[in-house]
Structure formats: structure tokens, C-alpha cells
Design a protein that fits this description.
By secondary structure, the protein is of the alpha+beta class. It is built from 11 helices and 6 strands. The strands form 2 sheets. Strands 2-3-5-6 form a 4-stranded antiparallel sheet. Strands 1-4 form a two-stranded parallel sheet. Helix 6 runs antiparallel to helix 9.
Length: about 475
Amino acid sequence: MPSFRPLALLVSTSLMAGCAVGPDYQRPDAPLSEHYLGRPSVEQRSATTPADLETWWEGFDDPLLTRFVSQALQQNLDLMQASARVAQAQAGLGAANAALLPSGNISGQAARAYQSVETPLGQILDSRPGSDRYANAYGLDLGASWEVDLFGGLRRAREAALAEYQASRAGAVATRLAVAAQTADIYITLRGLQSRLEIANQQVKTQQDLLAKVQLLYGKGLAADYQVRQTEGSLAQVQATVPVLQTGLEAAMNALDVMLGAPPGTHRAELANTGSIPLAPAIKATGTPADLLRRRPDLIVAERRLAASNARIGEAVAEYYPKFSLSALLGSATSVSAGHLFSNGASQATGTLGLRWRLFDFGRINARIDQAKGQEAEALAAYRQSVLRATEDVENAFSALVNRQAQSTTLVDGETSLTKARRSSFIAYQKGTASLIDVLHADETVLQVADARAQAQTESARAAVAAFKALGGGWQPLETQPLATR
């Protein structure tokens, strides 16, 4: 069959063509230092419990915190949205894969027509004796078509779709890490507010006792009016902090419920009892900044989007070249009856070689290529900036963790010393060498330091959460989940 030789030659040429137009992707170098500045301080800090990066929330040694994080990772609605985005990207990849394959279709028809006598054909039929102005037509065809990807435009589109799918998967992991970190952060903040609220209520009682004592002395002429007013003002100042703390506590409880995919108030009874502020665990291995490239899913997202934009350049460049397509039709048609549809005389076949070339449209092609190159340049800058910000996140979290823990340790020591001073003041009061006002002032000072200590402990634990998140903790590294492979 000599007429099909050009088609066979074109098919064999396309199968042997392994190159595709446009630039091949190369992972760019990242501006990273060899080690973290805060690593020595973080690894030397004292902590009772070490934590693994994969399940860092268990290192806080708080069963309720662990349960809430696990529950959020199963029920959070942000994670469900991320999963839906992955499914959409996977569908896009499936469409790009299908574009490389032949497509086929089956079509059939059956028609019955009546010819009017007012038309020339109808008049001819009417003038012939025995002619029937009714006509039947039957047809059944099997068609196939294939765009031959000689210059790699479809393959570049598939590369882009694959990179976008991988980016969506990494984005889902990034959402998972954010949900775990945010849940832990809200829980720690909640426990810190409960501790501070308990301290504030103690301060209110202390100031009330102090005011009662000063009013008693004032009634006996042993205290001045300004002392009464000053004590009333101090009491009002302390009382004003209680509604603020209560508002923050209720907001934290509501936020935690939403993170768990539940209506606000669902876990309020369970959290009503004041719990201790979780202690920041030790970080077993901080790694190096280079480890962030495989551990931080947001960096994988940025890198895969860069790969996709690079492939889009090749897809645009392919429009410079002609596009060839092969199509074939195998079928049967008859106007006699449906019974003759599959007879030898009714068979028909067609083979077509198609050509499409945008010869006079290079201006639009140039614009599209320039646009794709601009998008790649933007993606490259975004990737490098993401790397810098990732290392910044780690350094800031390390600094906050070390300094907040040091602050907490100092305030604990100060609280211990002031508690001893208060005890000495009370002994002196019992011996008559100090007044009750001195004892109440000592109580007030102890409670003020206790409030500062509770804040420092809360911020220290929150800094640990931020450090684990910045390091990409909470999922298996790239060796076991190759999201960024090409």
C-alpha cells in the first residue's frame, strides 16, 4: 500500500524523536549557609523530654495536646480543601497524559427523508412512474485521531501538569504541618491564659484584702486618704485585666474547636479545668539549612512551581513549529436498508494526514513565550525568597526559644526569692515587727512575677512549636515521599 508510506514514516519519526523544544529544567542553586547561627544554643538548652521531628507534638508530654493535634489532622476542614486541590491537579495531569494518546469515537446515524415535489429533484422523481420520494440512509463509523508530538509541545505540557500536581501534594503536606502547629499553638496559648487568669484572680483577692486593711487603718486615723485612693486604683487596674484574659481564653477555646472541625463550645467543658503550661521539649536534631529543601513542603511547592513554569516555556516555543495529526475512519454506509449496512459493498475507509502551522501568528507566539519566561523569572525569585525566609523562620524561632526559656528560668528564680521574702514578711508580722500591709504588698509582688513567668513559659512553648514547624517537622522527609522527583 504505497499511499500509506508517508504516514508510516511520520509515525516512526515521531517515535524516535526524544527531544522537546524549550529549556530543560535544572534545579537552581539555593542561597543557604552551612549551619544555623542559633543551633549551638538550641542544642545546649536544658529540657526534660526530647522530641522527634516527625511527631514533635508528643514531645510536650501532654496527652490532651497530643490527642487534639491527632484529631485536627483527621478532621480539619483546611486539610479537606487541600485534598480536594490535589484531586483537581491529578485530574489535570490525567488530561495532559491523555493528550499524548490517540483518541477514538464511534458515530452512527439512521435517517428517513421525503422529497417535496416543488423542488427540481422532487419533480423529476414525481415524473417517473414507480419512483418513491421517500429515502432511507444508514451509516456507522469508527474514527481515530492522534496528534503526533514531533516537537514536544504536549510533552512539555505534561511536564508542567506533573510539576503542578507534585506542588499540590506538597501544598497539602504544608497545610498538614500548619494545622498541627496552629492546633498546638492555640492549646498552649489557652493553657497560658488559664494560668494567668488564675493568677489575676489571686491578685484581685490580694488587692481586696489590702484595700480592706487600709480602709480600717484610715477609719482609725492611721492611714491617709491618698493611700485609700491609691489602693482602690490598684484594685481596679487588676480587676480590669480579668475580662481581657477571659475574652482571650474564650476566643482560644473557640479557635481550637474550629481547628478540630467542630462547632465552638464543643470541647469547652473538657478544657474548663486549668491545666499546666506544656514545657518546651528538646530538639533532637536541627540538621542544616540544606535539609530544609527536602523537609519544608512550602519550599517543595515553590520549586515545583518553578519547574512547571520552565516547562510552560517549551510548550509555548512548540507553537513555532508545525503540528501533524493522523486520523482514520472505518465504517459502512447504505441507502437501501439497515440489513445491507455490513455488506462488503457498503464499507468505506479513510486515512488522513493533517498539518497545522501558525505561519502568520508569530507575534502572538512571541508574546506567549515572553509571558512564560516572565512567569519563570517570577517563580525563580519566589523560590529563592522562600528559601531565605525559611532559614529566617528557623533562626527567629531558635532565638525566641532560647531567650524565652532564659527569661522563664530567671522569673522562676525571682518568684522563688520573692516567695521566701513574703514568708519572712509574714513571720515578721506575726512577731509584730511588720504590718499586714507589708505582707499584702509582698503577695502582690509575688503574683506580678508569677504572671510574667506564666507568659514567659507560654511563649517558650510557642517558640518550640514555631521551631518544629520552621524545620519542617511533622511528616516523613523526601526520601520516603518523593514529591519533588521529576
